[in-house]
Design a protein that fits this description.
Its cofactor is FAD. The chain is 30% helix and 25% strand. It is an alpha/beta fold. The protein has three domains: 201 residues, FAD/NAD(P)-binding domain (3-Layer(bba) Sandwich); 105 residues, 3-Layer(bba) Sandwich (FAD/NAD(P)-binding domain); 113 residues, Enolase-like, domain 1, CATH 3.30.390.30.
């Protein structure tokens, strides 16, 4: 079968791309071996943030006395939480299926895709051919090589969301975004939680003050941390999982009922037959692309997490937007120098955009820094949610924002205002004279801008 375009993987880049190309009258093949929607809908954003919402309700109920509200004993029905999550996931999947069914020139092929040539894909017994092929196969959990781990019933970000009974003590291997979100979530559900991390601080890519503040807030909720810990061995016996650690040269053992492995992701490229098409990968298996998302083979593009770089759903969607602009609208848009906002959905949320202070200093920028605690923001005080801070990194030469971090309630929402200013290329001083609705969390920007000083 010959197509105008073949899209491998129905993630948040591949789905809209296949829909839009089909709407142009192209004959399009969409290949998916599992559920439509990719990581985001099935094992990522949608289910995890649904569960985060349940965890927040449990937290509010358990601590209602802070706000002068009386409640009784609070318990969590994990099976019901999972059922709510499953229903939302299924509704999103069904929506994707309807979008495919509505397009008669979009063929959905269920099965594993494998290149058998630069412009030929095998799916089961079928061979699909096309001059334009788009790879959107995403990533999966990276499982470290640790003695005894293979024989342990460990959990991943996907399988932990299949639990129906609450872990008594959840061990989390990895202090990154995934580990922290699940760690806080299950602590709020009622589990004991211990996070084991190799680095000196959690969230290694963030500034030390951000990592330290978030760790302090999570510890305030009862989450335990073991840092600078190398896991040498894993044992599973008598219903307990034990991690044998080397912590600053000393041996230490941490035991729990369940183990979540959250030590990173790896690209789904090792079984695509890319060598048959001549498509190159880097040492970690990611597919290098140029600014227009083209691989080294003409007519083959890669989008989303599989190409490396920031692994966020909104990046995958922006990849689709760039491809469509170039291929259909005749524009010359690239992924180079794009401004990427993101959020870690702990509570408080960490909203981030641009570069960190440590990266800005490493690049030799002359800086101005503004930083205020959320305890200076009226709305945060009124909500009794004053943990965290706002931080602004400014180029002292032109007063333009290089980056920002907002660790606050709704930090992910707030950061996008600063991202918009960066997109416009305007100086931070524009916000000094802005009028903010009172009382809102965004009103904190007024004070933040006043605090920007040479650093």
């Amino acid at each position: 079968m010959t197509y105008d375009a073949i899209v491998i993987g129905s993630g948040q880049g591949g789905n809209p791309l296949s829909h839009k190309l089909a709407d142009l009258g192209w004959r399009v093949a969409l290949i998916e071996k599992e559920h439509l929607g990719g990581t985001c809908i099935n094992t990522g954003c949608t289910p995890t943030k649904t569960m985060v919402a349940s965890a927040q309700v449990a937290h509010y109920a358990r601590h209602a006395a802070r706000w002068g509200v009386r409640t009784g004993e609070v318990s969590v029905d994990l099976a019901r939480i999972m059922a709510r999550k499953d229903a939302i996931v299924q509704s999103f999947r069904s929506g994707q299926e309807r979008k495919v069914d509505q397009r008669p020139n979009l063929d959905l092929h269920r099965g594993h895709a494998r290149f058998i040539g630069p412009h030929a894909i095998q799916v089961g017994a079928e061979t699909l051919e096309g001059e334009r092929i788009f790879v959107n196969t995403g990533t999966r959990p990276e499982i470290p090589r640790i003695e005894g781990l293979d024989g342990t019933a460990y959990l991943t970000n996907a399988t932990i969301m299949e639990l129906r009974e609450l872990p008594e003590h959840l061990l989390v291997l990895g202090g990154g975004y995934i580990g922290l979100e699940f760690g806080q979530m299950f602590r709020r559900f009622g589990s004991r939680v211990t996070i084991v991390h190799r680095g000196d601080e959690i969230l290694t890519r963030e500034d030390p003050d951000v990592a330290a503040e978030l760790q302090k807030l999570l510890e305030g909720e009862g989450v335990s941390f073991v840092l600078r810990a190398r896991t040498n061995r894993v044992q599973h016996a008598n219903g307990q999982i034990a991690l044998m650690l080397d912590v600053d040269g000393d041996s230490q053992t941490v035991s729990g009922s369940h183990l979540l492995v959250a030590t990173g992701r790896r690209p789904n490229t090792d079984d695509l037959g890319l060598e048959q098409a001549g498509v190159q990968t880097d040492a970690k298996g990611y597919i290098p692309v140029n600014g227009r998302l083209e691989t080294n083979v003409p007519g083959i593009w890669a989008l989303g997490d599989v190409k490396g770089g920031p692994a966020f759903t909104h990046i995958s969607y922006n990849d689709y937007q760039i491809l469509y602009a170039n291929l259909v609208e005749g524009k010359n848009v690239t992924i180079d120098h794009r401004i990427v906002p993101y959020s870690v959905f702990t509570d408080p949320q960490l909203g981030r955009v641009g570069i960190t202070e440590k990266d800005a200093r490493a690049k030799g920028h002359s800086l101005k820094i503004g930083k205020i605690p959320m305890s200076w923001v009226a709305r945060a005080i009124e909500r009794d949610e004053t943990g965290g801070f706002m931080k602004l990194i400014v180029d002292a030469g032109d007063d333009r924002i290089l980056g920002a971090a907002i660790l606050a309630t709704e930090g992910g929402e707030l950061i996008q205002m600063l991202g918009t200013l960066m997109l416009a290329g305007l100086p931070y001083t524009l916000l000094k004279g802005a009028i903010y609705i009172h009382p809102t969390l965004a009103e904190g920007f007024f004070t933040l801008m006043e605090e920007v000083k040479p650093a």
